[in-house]
Amino acid sequence: MNITTTPKVSVIIPAYNAEKTIRETINSVLEQTYSNLELILINDGSTDETLELINEVKDSRLQVFSYPNGGLSMARNRGITHATGEYISFIDADDLWTYDKLELQLEAFKKSPEAGVAYSWTICVDNAGKHFHQGVKASFEGNVYKHLLVNNFIASGSNVLIRTEAVKSVGEFDITLKSCEDWDYWLRLAPNWKFVVVPKPQIIYRLSLGGMSSKVDVMEKYLLLVLERAFISAPLELQYLKSQGISNIYQYTSKLYFNQINTENAVQKASIRLWKGICLNPLNLLRKNTQVLVVKLLLIWLLTPKNASNIMKFISSVKAISDPRLRNS
Fold first, then answer.
1. Is residue 37 within 8 Å of 101, Cβ to Cβ?
2. Which of 46, 98, 179, 183 is 20 to 30 A away from residue 205, measured at CA?
3. Which range has the worst mean pLDDT, 6-10, 136-140, 314-318?
4. A Pfam family in this protein (predicted)?
5. Is 125 among the domain residues?
6. Domain span holding position 226
7. What is d(CA 226, CA 159) in angstroms, rounded to the nearest whole number?
8. Could you tell me if 92 and 178 lie in one domain?
9. Is the pLDDT reported for residue 179 higher than 70?
10. How far apart are CA 48 and CA 163, in angstroms?
11. What is the pTM of this model?
């Protein structure tokens, strides 16, 4: 007699034209130290070799569903409809997990049975997968709503492990959002569910070196939209945080534009947003991240954008982390 074990964790990968990274992403899930999982891969209308590469994987835990292209949020929602686990996690088709990601997040739930969401620290990798850089390290737990209102410290849609009960309580990802849909989802979870953290880099977020200015413009538009919408429903006693949240958005997009300082247009956009952020919240000048951006701006004024860019790339490479899988982080 065959005994079927219901998977405890459902992992959802939305994949659209991800032939360059999809196998590595799948392996980072299937090689987890916690193995009682199902991997639900939503092929979101890929036109490259994504589906062929997926079909080469021989593991009974992998389920593949193909749909016409509907976008990231739609693909996640479709994955949720197939999920049977007690917990649900998402990972984008170009991101990676360390081997113990699920194991340690489940342990965090055991310590806090009332929690609905577990998250970990993130770390960033370049497109080549060679150089690693510090990501987001936050340690907020319990009621994290006010912290999420001013900053998406979860940092990545590939991060959280969520109780299925919590997923059902807030419904689907918003398919009208073309960016920042993950922050919107965490903000909907936070008022009613406690969060727990694994204080270890476990989410490896792949940076897009080919990011265009127009993409940053779109991200900024939706960051401001998500924030505005969140404060419509936020309680009166938290409304004072709104200017700080907007300031953080401008500082973040300023940083993204500074990464493209080889163009005069990007320098101008970065400078404007840095100034806006400081005006909205002058206390940001006490933060190291803001001070770094100010120094970058001074370098650009003193040097040509190209030379300033080269100096910053050199500094970044010196600080890069060389261990690609961070197994012992």
1. no
2. 46
3. 314-318
4. Glyco_tranf_2_2
5. yes
6. 213-319
7. 19
8. yes
9. yes
10. 34
11. 0.87
Axis-axis angle for helices 242-258, 264-280 (nearest 10) = 160
Highest mean pLDDT among 10-19, 124-133, 271-280, 316-325: 10-19
pLDDT, position 265: 76
Residues 194 and 235 grouped into a single domain: no
- Is residue 2 one of the residues assigned to a domain? no
**CATH code of the domain in which 42 resides:** 3.90.550.10
**92 and 234 part of one domain:** no
Convert the pLDDT of each residue in 225-242 to its tens digit: 999 999 999 999 999 999
Please report the pLDDT score of residue 321 as a whole number.
47
325 located within any domain: no
Q: What is the mean pLDDT of residues 176-196?
A: 96
Same domain, 238 and 113: no
Taking the mean position of all CA atoms in its chain, how far away is CA 299? 30
Residue type, 49: E
The DSSP symbol for 34 reads -
Residue 317 pLDDT greater than 80, yes or no:
no
Residue 326 lies in a domain: no
Nearest to 183 by CA among 241, 249, 277, 232: 249
Q: What is the mean pLDDT of residues 78-87?
A: 98
Q: Give, to the nearest 10 degrees, the angle between helix 242-258 and helix 288-302.
A: 40
Q: What is the full DSSP assignment across 44-98?
A: ES--SSHHHHHHT---TTEEEEEE----HHHHHHHHHHH--SSEEEE--TT-EE-
One domain, residues 194 and 239: no
For residues 68 and 77, the answer to whether their CB atoms sit within 8 Å is no
Domain count of the chain?
Answer: 2
**What's the one-letter identity of residue 161?**
L
CA nearest neighbour of 293 among 262, 270, 320: 270
Contacts 24+ apart (CB under 8 A), 44-48: 44/14, 44/15, 44/16, 44/69, 44/70, 44/71, 44/72, 44/74, 44/75, 45/16, 45/69, 45/70, 46/15, 46/16, 46/17, 46/18, 46/19, 47/17, 48/17, 48/18, 48/19
The answer on 250 and 136 residing in a single domain is no
Six-digit token string for 224: 């401001």
